[in-house]
Specification:
Blueprint: E1 4-7, E2 12-15, H1 18-25, H2 28-39, H3 44-53, H4 58-63, H5 79-101, H6 105-114, H7 119-126, H8 151-155
Antiparallel strand pairs: 1-2
Amino acid sequence: MGKRYFCDYCDRSFKDDPEARKKHLSSLQHAKNRADHYNLYKDPETILKEETAKIPCKRFMTYGDCAFGNGCRFSHYPPPYIWELRRIVESKNRSAGSIGAGPNPDDIVKEFFETTLDESIIEAIDCPIWTIPAEFHNYPNLPPSLHPITPESITNSNFGKWG
Protein backbone atom coordinates (compact mmCIF):
# COMPACT_ATOMS: atom_id res chain seq x y z
CA MET A 1 0.00 0.00 0.00
CA GLY A 2 2.93 2.37 0.60
CA LYS A 3 3.70 4.89 3.29
CA ARG A 4 1.04 7.31 4.45
CA TYR A 5 1.59 10.76 5.94
CA PHE A 6 -0.77 11.85 8.74
CA CYS A 7 -1.27 15.56 9.40
CA ASP A 8 -2.15 16.20 13.05
CA TYR A 9 -3.48 19.68 12.31
CA CYS A 10 -5.89 18.55 9.60
CA ASP A 11 -6.62 15.10 11.08
CA ARG A 12 -6.18 13.35 7.74
CA SER A 13 -3.68 11.14 5.98
CA PHE A 14 -2.49 10.97 2.40
CA LYS A 15 0.19 9.34 0.29
CA ASP A 16 3.66 10.22 1.55
CA ASP A 17 5.54 11.60 -1.40
CA PRO A 18 7.19 15.03 -1.71
CA GLU A 19 4.65 16.43 -4.16
CA ALA A 20 1.58 15.45 -2.13
CA ARG A 21 3.15 16.67 1.11
CA LYS A 22 4.16 20.01 -0.45
CA LYS A 23 0.68 20.46 -1.91
CA HIS A 24 -0.93 19.73 1.46
CA LEU A 25 1.41 21.92 3.52
CA SER A 26 0.85 24.88 1.20
CA SER A 27 -2.95 24.54 1.20
CA LEU A 28 -5.12 27.20 2.82
CA GLN A 29 -6.99 24.66 4.92
CA HIS A 30 -3.74 23.35 6.47
CA ALA A 31 -2.51 26.89 7.15
CA LYS A 32 -5.84 27.75 8.83
CA ASN A 33 -5.83 24.57 10.95
CA ARG A 34 -2.22 25.13 12.00
CA ALA A 35 -2.91 28.76 12.96
CA ASP A 36 -6.02 27.71 14.93
CA HIS A 37 -3.94 25.14 16.82
CA TYR A 38 -1.25 27.62 17.84
CA ASN A 39 -3.85 30.27 18.74
CA LEU A 40 -4.92 28.01 21.59
CA TYR A 41 -1.51 28.50 23.23
CA LYS A 42 -1.16 32.28 23.02
CA ASP A 43 -0.42 34.11 26.24
CA PRO A 44 -3.04 36.56 27.59
CA GLU A 45 -0.92 39.63 26.76
CA THR A 46 -0.78 38.75 23.07
CA ILE A 47 -4.50 37.97 22.91
CA LEU A 48 -5.35 41.25 24.66
CA LYS A 49 -3.13 43.26 22.31
CA GLU A 50 -4.68 41.65 19.22
CA GLU A 51 -8.29 41.85 20.38
CA THR A 52 -8.16 45.48 21.56
CA ALA A 53 -6.82 46.47 18.12
CA LYS A 54 -9.93 44.99 16.46
CA ILE A 55 -13.49 46.33 16.46
CA PRO A 56 -16.26 43.98 17.69
CA CYS A 57 -17.89 41.66 15.15
CA LYS A 58 -21.52 42.78 14.84
CA ARG A 59 -22.70 39.40 13.57
CA PHE A 60 -21.04 37.52 16.44
CA MET A 61 -22.28 39.98 19.09
CA THR A 62 -25.85 39.86 17.71
CA TYR A 63 -26.33 36.19 16.83
CA GLY A 64 -23.51 34.47 18.71
CA ASP A 65 -21.88 32.99 15.61
CA CYS A 66 -19.90 34.18 12.63
CA ALA A 67 -19.39 32.50 9.27
CA PHE A 68 -15.66 33.36 9.36
CA GLY A 69 -15.01 31.78 12.78
CA ASN A 70 -11.47 32.30 14.07
CA GLY A 71 -10.47 33.78 10.71
CA CYS A 72 -12.75 36.78 11.19
CA ARG A 73 -10.93 40.12 11.09
CA PHE A 74 -13.23 41.48 13.82
CA SER A 75 -13.09 40.67 17.52
CA HIS A 76 -15.29 37.90 18.90
CA TYR A 77 -14.43 38.78 22.50
CA PRO A 78 -17.27 40.52 24.37
CA PRO A 79 -16.34 43.35 26.77
CA PRO A 80 -16.45 41.15 29.93
CA TYR A 81 -13.82 38.82 28.35
CA ILE A 82 -11.62 41.81 27.48
CA TRP A 83 -11.91 43.09 31.08
CA GLU A 84 -11.00 39.64 32.40
CA LEU A 85 -7.98 39.49 30.07
CA ARG A 86 -6.88 42.93 31.31
CA ARG A 87 -7.21 41.76 34.91
CA ILE A 88 -5.16 38.62 34.20
CA VAL A 89 -2.43 40.59 32.41
CA GLU A 90 -2.26 43.19 35.19
CA SER A 91 -2.02 40.54 37.92
CA LYS A 92 0.64 38.71 35.92
CA ASN A 93 2.65 41.92 35.50
CA ARG A 94 2.26 42.74 39.19
CA SER A 95 3.46 39.31 40.28
CA ALA A 96 6.35 39.42 37.79
CA GLY A 97 7.45 42.79 39.17
CA SER A 98 7.43 41.55 42.76
CA ILE A 99 9.68 38.57 42.03
CA GLY A 100 12.75 40.71 41.43
CA ALA A 101 12.04 42.91 44.47
CA GLY A 102 12.47 40.08 47.01
CA PRO A 103 15.70 38.90 48.60
CA ASN A 104 18.07 36.68 46.68
CA PRO A 105 17.63 33.03 47.80
CA ASP A 106 21.38 32.40 47.53
CA ASP A 107 22.05 35.23 50.00
CA ILE A 108 19.57 33.75 52.46
CA VAL A 109 21.22 30.33 52.32
CA LYS A 110 24.71 31.83 52.64
CA GLU A 111 23.64 33.92 55.65
CA PHE A 112 22.07 30.88 57.31
CA PHE A 113 25.23 28.78 57.06
CA GLU A 114 27.68 31.59 57.86
CA THR A 115 26.03 32.79 61.05
CA THR A 116 27.19 31.13 64.25
CA LEU A 117 24.66 29.32 66.36
CA ASP A 118 23.91 30.46 69.87
CA GLU A 119 25.52 28.22 72.55
CA SER A 120 22.16 27.44 74.17
CA ILE A 121 20.86 26.08 70.86
CA ILE A 122 23.93 23.85 70.50
CA GLU A 123 23.44 22.48 74.03
CA ALA A 124 19.79 21.78 73.27
CA ILE A 125 20.81 19.88 70.15
CA ASP A 126 23.28 17.69 72.08
CA CYS A 127 20.62 16.52 74.56
CA PRO A 128 18.62 13.50 73.41
CA ILE A 129 14.98 14.44 73.08
CA TRP A 130 13.64 10.96 72.42
CA THR A 131 13.20 8.26 75.02
CA ILE A 132 11.93 4.72 74.81
CA PRO A 133 8.27 4.53 75.82
CA ALA A 134 7.65 2.70 79.08
CA GLU A 135 5.84 -0.12 77.28
CA PHE A 136 9.02 -1.02 75.36
CA HIS A 137 11.32 -1.38 78.42
CA ASN A 138 10.22 -5.03 78.78
CA TYR A 139 11.50 -5.87 75.27
CA PRO A 140 15.31 -6.07 75.18
CA ASN A 141 15.76 -6.77 71.45
CA LEU A 142 13.98 -3.84 69.84
CA PRO A 143 14.79 -3.05 66.20
CA PRO A 144 17.02 0.00 65.67
CA SER A 145 14.10 2.00 64.30
CA LEU A 146 12.48 1.96 67.76
CA HIS A 147 15.61 2.95 69.70
CA PRO A 148 15.88 6.55 70.87
CA ILE A 149 17.92 8.78 68.60
CA THR A 150 21.21 10.03 70.03
CA PRO A 151 24.16 11.69 68.28
CA GLU A 152 26.09 8.42 68.64
CA SER A 153 23.30 6.31 67.13
CA ILE A 154 23.08 8.61 64.09
CA THR A 155 26.73 8.13 63.21
CA ASN A 156 26.75 4.42 64.09
CA SER A 157 25.57 2.38 61.13
CA ASN A 158 26.66 -0.99 62.49
CA PHE A 159 23.31 -2.66 63.06
CA GLY A 160 22.88 -6.20 64.14
CA LYS A 161 20.26 -8.50 62.78
CA TRP A 162 16.76 -7.06 62.83
CA GLY A 163 14.53 -9.29 64.91
